[in-house]
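Morning, I've got a small favour to ask if you have a moment. Here's the protein in full, and shout if anything looks odd to you:
***
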Amino acid sequence: MSSATKQLRLPPMPRISDLMRLYGLRAKKQLSQNFILDLNVTDKIARKADVFDCNVIEVGSGPGSLSRSLLNAGLRHLYAVEIDKRFLPSLELLQDASDGHMSIYHADILKFDMVKPLKNVISAEWESDDLPNLRLVGNLPFSVSIPLFLQWLEALSTRSGVFSFGRIPMTLVFQKEVGQNMVAEALNYDRSRLAIMAQNYCHVSRAMEISSSVFVPEPKVDAWLMHFIPLKKPAIDAPFNVVEQVVKAIFSKRRKVIKTPLRFSFYYENNKRNNSNKNRLTNRLQLTALNTDKVSKNESLTLLQLNILNTYKVTRIDSPTLLRSTILNTNKITRTNSPILLRLTILFTDKLTKTDSLTAPK
């Protein structure tokens, strides 16, 4: 073990609960703040995160209870990101005791450039079995947990941002229901858009269950500590925004057969046109794209069936609002970056179906 990564021994410090009373700190409901003050629990989280000899970006440090456990776990350096300036004094007290192993950033994690402050990060090739010495850890505010996670998945898909260093593991606290959605397999009632997105890019597992009673203030639901390791190759080989749009369309009508959300996701610009052609096209898209002869519900889909865009080659045009494609023998599909307008011109080689323009509803 190098001198730079010797096990840090923090000096005796006041309890986090005492610091909160000292500084008059209370959780803000509008920021969805729920803190874990029990160091026995935060120590377990730090062990599950496997941070020894690693640089760690902690999201939502709060009063610093998890920060303290991470420092005691033998990390190289802790980058603590906290949006609430009220907690800076307690974090600065911990920083002073960290012997240079901790930096504090008063910032909104959704907008924070996590790469800029990093030092001495050892990268690892994406296709290798090795992982970078960098970890993302946090007790995420429930209100931003899903948008933040999806933002990280998008960066992961392009290997940009912190994921330019390699397949960085993430250990994050979510509401129990969200965690159940993330690990749900096909045919599970909890299967959702979030499950597809998470499992498409990561190996997802539950590290531990956290009772609501350990949080201050106590939420109405328990939480799960989730562990994510990016996959070397996503199951659905397509750009992130394409995958997201397709999965969003399929799961837009919960517990419905796939035909229903597909039919409502794309409709003819010329509303006077007979709907029979649209229904024929929907059936064709369902059966061809999903490789199934059954009328399935969305929660029954596997990642293999959802690999629509492995079969359908993805192309783009310069127009930001209009995208047209031709489905030939290679089954091509396209979409636009515009969240409002999606037009497809589809021509099947067997001449069974031909459409001029389909548009996503506003």
Observations:
- Confidence is low (pLDDT under 50) at residues 265-274, 284-295, 309-362.
- The first helix runs from residue 16 to 22.
- The two ends are 58 Å apart (CA to CA).
